[in-house]
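Notebook B, p. 112. Complex prediction, attempt 2.
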Amino acid sequence: MKFRGKITDIACLNHFTRVVTTISKLTKTCVLRLTPDHLFFILPGKVTNGGVGMWCQLLQANFFQEYQMEGVTSEVQEICLEVSPEPWSRALKTVQSAKSVKLKLTRKHCACLTVAAELPTLSSVGRVVTHDVPVDVIPRRLWQEFQEAGVPDFDVSVYLPPLKTMKSVVDRMKNLSNFLVMEANLNGDMNLKIQTDLVSVTTHFKDLGNPSRDPEVMAEVTVDIRKLQQFLMGQQVNPSKALCNIVHQNVVHLVLLHEDVSLQYFIPAVA
Amino acid sequence: MQCVVTGGNVKVLGKAVHSLSRIGDELYVEPQEDGLALRSVNSSRSAYACFLFAPLFFSRYAIPTGLNFRCKMAIKSVQSVFKSLATLEKTVEKCHIGLDEQKDRLTFTLHCKHGLLKTHNLSYQDSESLEAVFDKNSCANVFRAQPRVLVDTVVHFPTSLEEVTVTVSDERMWVRNHVEDEAERSKAMLTELCLAADEFDYFAVKAHYSITFCLKEFRGLLLFAESTGLPVSMYFDEPGSPVVLSVTDSVLEGNFVLATLSDNHDLQKSNRGGDADQPHPPDDFMSDDMDAYLIAMDTSAAPGPSTADPPPPSLATFRKPPAPNYRTRTHSEEEEEDDGEEDPERPPDKKFRSLFFGSVLPPSSQMNTQPLTTQEVLASDSEDETEAD
């Protein structure tokens, strides 16, 4: 089981840092699944983390100039690690000016994902900083939890309004209520609603467009407003497309697409 | 007492006050024959800093002969005089420091552009002289570096980090974050940065020591060094004896004396584990030997993921108080008693040696304001300090 990736392009480094930072805003720990072609950041939608699930997929060739890995066995070319994205993001942020950054799986005091950066310096020897982020290697028998969640049959699927606009709306609604109703129809209408004993607030978005289908029936889901806020807050990816899929009274599936990165986020309905 | 500071030196003075504020809550002011001394010490007395501004630093420096004036005052109030350093440089033309003996006030007058005059009358308390006794010239290891090198080094460590460990060999210096106990180590990120000797202006190592000291105060000094562009010198000996960081110029001298963790050999050893055996990160980086990164564990079999963890050595080894080799250098009985008062059941994991103060600890007048019994010789006391305000 080996893994080593090297980034020498500053734009790739910057992009990768933003992805990791986005992930770190969404969750404290997640699973990093490495395959010969892809990196996945996965948060299985378990009850323990409030049912929120995440699936982020990166094509390694778009980030790494060198990428080598060997899976657990010669047949199974995969590695699953439990990682904390926050220290990782912190480590990457301080090496933005590096000549090259290496990510590698190392055995130090425990299994670590090591970020080693060669920093610019006038010295002949070169200045190297290493950050060892402890990881847990996940045994194979637990891997079935980290398969891509089957995308449910959605009642409604629409494009999201600009995330910044949505964020400022949700941030304000957060002050009034802990729960928010998201509803949308295939006409491209989406409403964000809060209802309390004292006040009802609805923000209407129109003409959002949708990938297909037609009826005007609204599909709605009541979600924990903090989960939605967290999703909007961490955005560093600047998606070219943002999609919202709703299964009525069941789940919101948010998808961000940006060239080589796709991030899916599942927020379950509250009872 | 009449001190007049003009031009860019006002900012230098302001920066010095700000960087002293990283040390303690009180600023000790003492006009001496050889210049104006500004000092501070933290409540656990594990960090001390002193700036001495020579008479030539001032455009006018006059102290009354025979009058042995010295005082201490809340550092926050002095900081507010030099609140915005950016605008200070542009707007303030002259700073006048005088003593109003009638009202027992120290007066800071800022002469700004357009004839604007800002006067701060600050109250003070009498104090004993505060002076740490240290001899940096006898230290085995001496380094000098441009502030930029050190600033670029500490930037890799999180602001929440309390202590760093500095290890030196003949040609290299390693800076690492200090992680206290074994339990934390399996979770905490370990950061290590290696500096080659040629990054330093001066690099003289006589003994391969590894010392651990507080980062907060070090950052305070770097703040000053960076803005004035003065190289930082570092002097240290074996673990447990203080590290001295200093900046010098023809008209000023700043010395930061920081306690280091006393050498608990077991702790030192276990702190790095396997790393210590392979202290060649640059080579490691260059040679891409994949096998070196091999993680030898069969995940299909073992449920416990971190089988690489060494069995934790018995707690006793690193909980051991460093009492036996605790060569305390302080003359003060109170301090020693204080150390003895630590709960024997659970001694603190880390312990900084209190610095040695010649004439500071003193007379009862000061004991009233600084009850020693509450002092804990631990690293960070910033929380306590703010609470006290």
